[in-house]
């Protein structure tokens, strides 16, 4: 599914063409998503201008008069810029015609994403209020991670994928960060040393920063807001490489399941 870098890539890709521009029209061809499109949303936002686009975890926040559009891409959704006369594809469910001359089009084959409207402060919404810190913010530190990990028996990989601990560390990036930090993904979080957690925080920041810079991870269903695929998959060190040699020591990479997610690691480099 689209992860934090993919969502951030989308935000950056569409921002120039959305921010400060008016919604001339909104068309909803399908209202049945994980959260149904609110009745009357089209009339509520038509004629209004968007403010500065924000991202919280994997949610996009589009400020508009009286509140925010809260958009989640779900498992296979994408927001991309199109021309109004571009032919519809199957699963193109929502269009926003903008005064910039572009159309913002939502595509979602599985319909696990959604768009909702939040009045007031969006961070008070129950879907956002309980989230942990942003991984690229100053609030995400080794000291914070150590405090949260104390006495925890859960595997460190599952721990860092918990959005209450830190947001946006999806399966791909958890695999990569743990390899960079040299930590066995099966190790109980409470048994990881402070020194190793310091390396892990740096690795998480590095791998997410690199993924954003390169446009996200190439997934079958993901394209950026400017309709281009991501390229971070070319740089993956362990994810999807089970059974292949480690790029550091040439030991055979092992693949196991942790928290129902495929996990690849080097038994020699990750202790």
Notable characteristics:
4-stranded antiparallel β-sheet
Report on this model:
It is a single chain. The chain is α+β, with helices and mostly antiparallel strands and about 270 residues long. It has seven helices and ten strands. It has helices spanning about 5-20, 40-45, 125-130, 140-150, 155-160, 170-180, 195-215, and strands at about 25-30, 55, 60-65, 65-70, 80, 90-100, 105, 115-120, 255-260, 260-265. Strand 9 and strand 10 form a beta hairpin. Residues about 220 have low confidence and may be disordered.
Distance between termini?
29 Å
Category by helix and strand content: alpha+beta
- The average pLDDT value, as a whole number, equals 92
Content of β-strand: 15-25%
Q: What is the radius of gyration?
A: 20 Å
Low-confidence stretches: 218-222
Strand order of the largest sheet: 1-6-7-5
Order of helical and strand elements: HEHEEEEEEEHHHHHEE
**Number of contiguous helices:** 7
Largest sheet: 4 strands, antiparallel
Number of strands: 10
Q: In one word, what is the shape?
A: elongated
The percentage helix is: 25-40%
Q: What's the topology here?
A:
Layout lengths: L3 H15 L4 E6 L12 H5 L8 E3 L2 E6 L2 E6 L5 E5 L9 E7 L4 E5 L6 E6 L6 H4 L12 H8 L6 H5 L10 H11 L12 H20 L40 E5 L2 E5 L6
Antiparallel strand pairs: 1-6, 2-3, 3-4, 4-8, 5-7, 6-7, 9-10
Compact summary:
The protein is α+β, with helices and mostly antiparallel strands.
């Amino acid at each position: 599914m689209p992860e934090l870098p993919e969502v951030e890539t989308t935000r950056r890709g569409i921002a120039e063409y959305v921010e400060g521009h008016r919604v001339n029209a909104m068309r909803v061809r399908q209202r049945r998503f994980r959260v149904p499109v609110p009745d009357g949303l089209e009339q509520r936002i038509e004629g209004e201008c968007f403010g500065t686009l924000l991202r919280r975890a994997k949610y996009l926040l589009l400020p508009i008069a009286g509140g925010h559009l809260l958009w989640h891409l779900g498992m296979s959704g994408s927001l991309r810029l199109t021309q109004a006369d571009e032919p519809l594809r199957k699963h193109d469910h929502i269009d926003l015609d903008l005064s910039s001359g572009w159309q913002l089009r939502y595509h979602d084959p599985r319909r696990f994403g959604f768009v909702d409207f939040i009045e007031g402060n969006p961070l008070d919404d129950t879907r956002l209020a309980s989230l942990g810190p942003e991984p690229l913010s100053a609030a995400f530190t080794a000291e914070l991670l150590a405090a949260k990990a104390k006495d925890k028996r859960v595997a460190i990989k599952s721990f860092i994928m918990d959005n209450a601990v830190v947001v946006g560390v999806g399966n791909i990036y958890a695999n990569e960060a743990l390899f960079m930090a040299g930590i066995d993904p099966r190790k109980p979080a409470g048994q990881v040393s402070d020194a190793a957690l310091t390396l892990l925080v740096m690795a998480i920041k590095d791998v997410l920063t690199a993924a954003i810079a390169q446009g996200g991870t190439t997934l079958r269903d993901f394209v950026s807001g400017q309709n281009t695929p991501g390229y971070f998959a070319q740089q993956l060190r362990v994810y999807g490489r089970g059974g292949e040699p480690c790029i550091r020591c040439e030991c055979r990479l092992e693949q196991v399941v942790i928290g129902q997610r495929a996990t690849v690691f080097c038994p020699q480099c990750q202790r």
